[in-house]
Amino acid sequence: MTMEKYKKILKKRMAVFSALALLCVGLLVYNQFWAPETLKNNAVFAFQCGLAASGALLLGFVLIRYRRILADDAKLELNYRQENDERAKAIRAKAGYPMVVVLSLLLVLAGMIAGYFNTTIFAVLIAAALFQMFACVAVKLYYRKTM
Amino acid sequence: MQLFYLEVFGIKTRIRELRKERRLSQEQLAFAVGTTRQTITSIEVGKYTASLALAYKIARYFGLAIEDVFDFSEIDEEGMGR
After folding, report:
1. Residue at which a domain ends, from A84, A104, A128
2. Looking at chain B, which residue has its C-alpha nearest residue A90?
3. Of the four listed, A1, A7, B2, B40, which is most buried by Cβ atoms within 10 Å?
4. What is the SS3 assignment for A110?
C-alpha cells in the first residue's frame, strides 16, 4: 500500500471519529439542557453523561494525533509500520482484538438500556465489559513482554 | 512438533551478526524491511519467529538465502514429521 492510500484511510477514519465526537457532544448538550427530569433521576443517566464526555475527549485526542501524523511524512510512515507490523498484529489477535472491544461496547450499550429498568443488570453488564477490556489489556501487555 | 518448537523457542538467526557486519541499527533494518524495531529485537533474541514474507525480506535485504539467515537445524534434526 502506498502512503497516499494510507493517508486516505486515515482521513476516512478522521471523518468517522469526528462524527462520533459530534454525536457525543450532542448527547451531552441534550442531556444538559433538554433531557426530561424523569430521566435525570437515574444512575444510568449520570453514567451516560460521563461516557459521552470521556468519549468526546478521547476522540478529540485521537483526532489531534491523526492530524499531526498526516502533517508529517516520517510520522505517517512510522505509524503505518506500527499498525501493520506482523508481531503487533499477532499480539492483537492473541488478545482478542478487535472482537473484545466490539463485544465490550455492546455490553456497555446493553447495560445502559437495561439500566433504565434494573440497576443490578446495569452494574453487572458494565462490570463484565470492564473485566473483559482489562483482561484484553493484560494479555496484550503479557505478550508484548514475552513475544 | 515443529510448530510447537517454533512457538516456544523461536528460531535462531544470524540477523544480529549480519547487522553488526554492515553497521546497521535495528531501526535501520526495520525501516528497510517495513517492520518495527521491536519486531527485529524479538526475532534476534528468538522470542518471535518471523513470517515467511518477513524472513524473505530480511534475507533479501542482506543478499542471502533464508536458510543462511535463519537456522533451521533444529527442525532438520526432527525430520519432516512423516
Report:
1. A84
2. B48
3. B40
4. helix
CB B19 within 8 A of CB B73: no
Helix/strand/coil for A74: helix
Confidence of residue A75 (pLDDT cuts 50, 70, 90): very high
Residue whose C-alpha cell reads 489531534 in the numeric block = A64
* Yes or no, beta carbons of A87 and B36 under 8 Å apart: yes
B39 alpha-carbon distance from chain centroid = 10
| ipTM entry | 0.81
Range of the domain at B11: 2-75
Are A30 and A82 contacting, i.e. CB atoms less than 8 angstroms apart? no
- Rounded Cα distance, A98 and A92, in Å: 8
Name the residue range of residue A52's domain.
1-84
Spell out which residues of chain A touch residue B34, defining contact as CB-CB under 8 Å. Answer: 81, 84
Nearby residues of A134 by Cβ (< 8 Å), 6 or more positions away: none
Number of residue pairs across A and B with CB atoms under 8 Å? 31
Tens digit of each residue's pLDDT (9 = 90 or more) over B36-46: 999 999 999 99
- Tell me the pTM: 0.82
Residues in chain B: 82
